[in-house]
């Protein structure tokens, strides 16, 4: 008799987000197994496994979904530690080489402040973000985030990530804008604006309440268009890298994100920190369309127009001076 393939029956977990084994003992409880009449997993899929699927199957087959989902907090800590390092090290070792790209060149954030920022963010991740993510596991199962085979195609991943970015950006815009009301700013959002010239490590630096509030929109997209847990991992990693990039304090000319339509970038968000608590501009987290539609980018556009007006005035003065000199010679 051929060996039969045992697969995890996820439908029972998805049927009720309040499944007791999940809520009470999900690190230990295993979903019940169903026997499928296939001699191997390739016949179950109707094709051979790809190299990526083979690696994923070997890694995840014996691991409960809860532990797979718990990878998120590890990825966040790794990305937060490593992603800001290149710019930070370049700023320390060769400041002149990148000084011309610094958005606020007159402000230098002390290393002690950066280390304090790092410690505070790690504490927030461990004691606030981590528990929230673990407690949200039943909801992740309920909306239909899957962990098995087949793996999603590149087009599926790209489409879902596009939805996640647009949806998160829209809801984040309104929550961020609400945090700039007088009471919310003084009691919560003021912490994030301690860095008037932001650095990469300060991207998630905020009051723990704000971290949780602004973290909620990141789950709306996956709830609308649920996909594979690998897509969910990639979504959180990319969103975290994007936040670090927009807070890095440098506007490098050839970053890949400059080719993304309506993308804000470091200069766009840096203006928001530069203005500080009085800011009523540039609330968007990723794209600029919300600020444009609702008129909250007028201050930024005026600010950007000033150097252009000054250059135009200088050019006009120079032309007038040349004409004056020429007329003087003719006279």
Automatic annotation (TrEMBL):
It comes from the Eukaryota. Belongs to the sterol desaturase family. GO terms for cellular component: endoplasmic reticulum membrane. It catalyses: a long-chain fatty aldehyde + 2 NADPH + O2 + H(+) = a long-chain alkane + formate + 2 NADP(+) + H2O. Its main location: endoplasmic reticulum. The chain crosses the membrane at residues 20-38, 66-90. Keywords: Endoplasmic reticulum, Lyase, Membrane, Transmembrane, Transmembrane helix. InterPro entries: Fatty_acid_hydroxylase, Sterol_Desaturase_Related. It is found in: Endoplasmic reticulum membrane. The lineage of its organism: Eukaryota, Viridiplantae, Streptophyta, Embryophyta, Tracheophyta. It is an enzyme of class 4 (lyase). It is a multi-pass membrane protein. One of its GO terms (biological process) is lipid biosynthetic process. Residues 163-296 form the Fatty acid hydroxylase domain. Residues 322-331 have a biased composition (Polar residues). PANTHER family: STEROL DESATURASE. GO terms for molecular function: aldehyde oxygenase (deformylating) activity; iron ion binding; oxidoreductase activity. This is aldehyde oxygenase (deformylating). Its EC number is 4.1.99.5. Residues 311-331 are annotated as: Disordered.
